[in-house]
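Reopening: Peptidase A1 domain-containing protein still failing for me.
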Amino acid sequence: MAASHSLLLCFILCFTHIFISTSETLFLPLTHSLSKTQFTSTHHLLKSTSTRSTARFHHYHHNKNSHNHRHVSLPLSPGSDYTLSFTLNSQPISLYLDTGSDLVWFPCQPFECILCEGKAENASLASTPPPKLSETATPVSCKSSACSAVHSNLPSSDLCAISNCPLESIEISDCRKHSCPQFYYAYGDGSLVARLYRDSIRLPLSGPPNLIFNNFTFGCAHTALAEPIGVAGFGRGVLSLPAQLATLSPQLGNQFSYCLVSHSFDSDRVRRPSPLILGRYDHDEKERRVNGVNKPSFVYTSMLDNPKHPYFYCVGLEGISIGRKKFPAPEFLRKVDREGSGGLVVDSGTTFTMLPARLYDLVVAEFENRVGRVNERASVIEENTGLSPCYYFANNVVNVPSMVLHFTGNGSGVALPRRNYFYEFLDGGDGKGMKRKVGCLMLMNGGDEAELTGGPGATLGNYQQQGFEVVYDFGERKSWVCKKAVCIFMGSLEPELTNLENRVCLFHFASGISLDNV
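Support: Ran it again with your exact input. Result attached.
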């Protein structure tokens, strides 16, 4: 995507939810994969999600010397990701929503998945038969820009030669009847070989009629290694779902957002669908008067382009405040260099926020000073969950310091609710001992700066995003974060609910200065 495009991050506290549509806005349901996944214990759940978060983050920095294949970051397991449903030729398809990649692909019949036994913890998704290509599906031509994009911008003449288009046809650019060659995708612990097709898909709205998306380009994989479930790429790229939707309707494709329902791994709340919002609705960018003082509706922060991972949504992190103490972020978190190193990626596919060791250690030390001096360290819990620090609490009153993320460009920050960074649960021990209340910090150590070259310096995980509306805007030349807002969705999921009058957004701002993107 062009450098002039930028990211709008609007954090809006949301509670209930509806899915509605207008001519410029679509509301679609996202399903948390945990709603269909069984874990044997809280320890198992946390260990699975922390391990997956670490593996996904470090994969961003692997294969830095490889230029032969395109390596994208895909979910390594369904531990805590969100799925979106489509219909292809009357066949339902559920794919992972991933803002860290830019292609929509899924398994197609006949499908062979190597080493997939036990890979997908979500048995319901993994057991769904792959769809069959319809008679209306057509292979993408080797001459198309989509073919070049999926092959890392290889010239169409090279791709058509690979597809056995005769030389004389290549010279006169007459290879439209020759299909785009198969492409190879490699990621964390698996890979796939697929071919590009175009067909009509349907997006499920809250009521009839569904949105029919003609000439949609997708990858059809007949062979995969350790990846039985496909991905709906929402990253910055011409093949992503939002980019393709923009060709159908710029109003729908130039902005999308999601509001992940706050769940804290609660079995009832995690089953509730989260709204994915395609298109632009009424975000008031004007100043609002609060207590007699004009306050800006948005906090602006510059979008950072990543030359190695152009599909990332990356912003600069200035620092983190724990209570009243602010810890500055390392310089490489505030920018991205020519090698693609640095910055903070907003990632729907990573569960927990990953920080470089230097900043993480400062945060942990302050937690140890504020929480650890009056509570016992739960070392066994840390070993079993992969999270740290964890503490035992003698009573139900836990004094946990506040946490604020500060983005570059304006000096303003976003205050995270306590449940977004400190998880409390009742530990059963070994079944013989007494149950004890435990609390764990939900940020993770991403490693030393030297280990993070060639990729992002940090990621903002979906657990820290829950309860906020995160808005990605491609049409604006500036990026912003909504300061403090409450977004209340009123109504139900009934099909007849098809207008925006049942959706009320109330904005409350504390401080901040708007800043135009240069």
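Residues 42-59 form the longest helix (18 residues). If you still see a failure, please send the error message rather than a screenshot.
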